[in-house]
Amino acid sequence: MWPARRVVGETFLSLALALAGVGAGLLDDENAAVAVGVGLLAGLLSLLRRGLPASVLLAAAAGSAPFFGFAPLLLVVAWSAGRRIDGLGRACGVFALAYGLALGLTAAWESHASLPLLAVAGMFILVAIVVPGLAGRYWSQRRTLTDTLHEYNAQLLRERAMLVGQARMLERQRIAQDMHDSLGHQLALIAVHTGALEVDRALTDQQREAVGVLREASVAAMHELRDVVGVLRDGADATPAAGAPPGGDDPGAPSRGVAGIDDLAETSRKAGTAVEIRRSGEARPLATTADHAAYRVVQEGLTNAHKHAPGASISIGLRYEPDSLVVEVANGPVAAPSGVASGGQGLTGLAERARLVGGMVHAGPTADGGFRLAGVLPYTSPGDARKTFVAPQDDFRAQSPAGPGGEAGPVIEWNGLPKELARAVNRTKRGNRIAIGCGVAALIGVVLVIAVVVGVVFLVREADKAMIEPAQYEAVKIGQSERSVRDALPHGDSFMNTGPGAGAPPEPDGSTCLTLLSSEIGSSLDADPVFRFCFKDGKLIEKKSFEAT
Fold first, then answer.
1. Of 112, 336, 412, 494, which cross-links 466 as Cys (Cβ 3.0–4.6 Å)?
2. 284 or 87: which carries more pLDDT confidence?
């Protein structure tokens, strides 16, 4: 079934061809009813040109001979047939048959057709049928080649995406194995030793509380390491299934969302740091990825404050704005900085995490000498997490702005094409250049031939106005009426008739004379045989034959 736009276009084209057929018929002095019928038939045939290109072309070629109203339709169906007739041999046969049919019917329809007239008609029929057919066939071949290249480009993008995904998965598995083997072992040792110290009776209550904080931190780190290793190994998003606890499979695992921020603050308080949490606005649920990002912003802010501003007070802010959650972690000034070096990797990773959910992160010093880390995270549902994805500037998919890989493609490097396709492209390009050159040359030749034929026809017509045969001269008798003589002879109104010329005998007094050229050749190149007829009182009183220069 055709789309609506094509239906409208076909209807408009059909009406336009019908009106053009009616107008062309009226210009050719056809009967109004015949012109309207031809126009309606032309509009109907235009609707069939897609399904029956050869048949419609032959019908339009046959109808163009007796009815000039089919001429606009012939141009359109010739172009359409050039696009849709499969096979070069079949196309050549159909177009040759259409040309012969149109020319033959033209010769049969014109009862007084002359050779110059048929030559001119043949040239015009050639231009009306063959030239649009060649243009349509060239356009169709170019469209086919372009579609093939687009399909190959989409295939290249899909293969490249598959290779990148496979390489990324292998690298994730390697990193996951390394993290599991190294960090997992070290965290397990820390948990065991801190657990042993916690029950040591030699420690004071304050020391035992500090060791308990260390043990809880090591256990929490082991839970997070397990989740990260699972994400790296499986290549899946850190989005738990519906109904699963926020921290993972273990109900006792710490929450890694906004709900776990209180635990982070409590852990810092146990380490001797003053931590304050301020909330404003009406709490709203976040997507799992955004919820996790908020947890990471607070975690990174607390870590940086402990490292670079030990002992400084820390404030955590959670502001629920109409369109996003604003998370802030700020620490006050410190008299003596710790001097611990920072690689900046935490903030870089945090900015990437916020970008993936459509948010942003800002970090910088405050007016009182402290430091502030803030993140803006939008409220998005779990199904919208991918829609907010913003690709980094160096992502290879930036070459395809219309959509993901396979929907549109970057510029193709021709050297990377398969050998068969590359050879086909080269042959097509070379063949197209040759075809275009031959087409232009043929078109120029056709125009020149048409100009010559038109010039010859024009000269023949002018000669018919100014020249007569000797037999016509002999058939005219002195004493005939002027009207009958002039009706039997050309009127002589032609640029070729320049008058009697030098050497003409004098005209009789009171007479009017008609001078015509003879179709015979004179006795010399400078002499032209001339026939002169002189009239007086409505009768022919003299006729003379002489040569004039």
1. 494
2. 284
**In the predicted structure, residue 408 carries a pLDDT above the cut 60:** no
**Do residues 490 and 464 make contact, with C-beta atoms less than 8 angstroms apart?**
yes
Cβ(310)–Cβ(331) below 8 Å: no
Q: Which SS3 state, helix, strand or coil, does residue 352 take? A: helix
Q: Is 548 helix (H, G, I), strand (E, B) or coil?
A: strand
Pairing of strands 275-280, 314-320: parallel
Assess contact for 38 and 25: CB atoms under 8 A: yes
Per DSSP, 111 falls in state T
Q: In the β-sheet with 528-536, what is the strand arrangement from edge to edge?
A: 467-468, 512-518, 528-536, 539-548
In whole angstroms, what is the distance from residue 221 CA to residue 215 CA?
A: 10
Place of tokens 């080649």: 145
Confidence at 310, pLDDT banded by 50, 70, 90: confident
SS3 label, residue 398: helix
Report the alpha-carbon distance of residue 194 to residue 216 in Å, rounded. 9
Strands 467-468 and 512-518: parallel
What does the block give as tokens for 352? 């990437």
E-state strands within 71-128: none
- What are the structure tokens assigned to 277, written together? 């949490």
DSSP per residue over 489-538, as a string? S----STT---S-TTPPPPPTT-EEEEEEESS--SSTT-EEEEEEEEETT
At 393 the three-state DSSP class reads coil
Handedness of CA 249, 251, 257, 263 (dihedral sign): negative
Tokens of 44: 């109907």
pLDDT digits 0-9 by tens, 97-130: 888 888 777 777 765 555 656 676 777 777 778 7
DSSP run (H or E) holding 452: helix 419-466
CA distances from 457 to 279, 450, 461, 497, 518 (A): 98, 10, 6, 17, 19
Decide: 333 and 370 in contact? Cβ < 8 Å: yes
Beta-ladder partners of 517: 467, 530
Q: How far is CA 548 from CA 239, 419, 446, 523, 545, in A?
A: 110, 77, 40, 11, 10
pTM of the predicted model as reported, rounded to 2 decimal places: 0.40
Phi-psi region of 503 (alpha: psi -120 to 50; beta: other; left: phi over 0): left
User: Does residue 330 sit in helix, strand or coil?
Assistant: strand
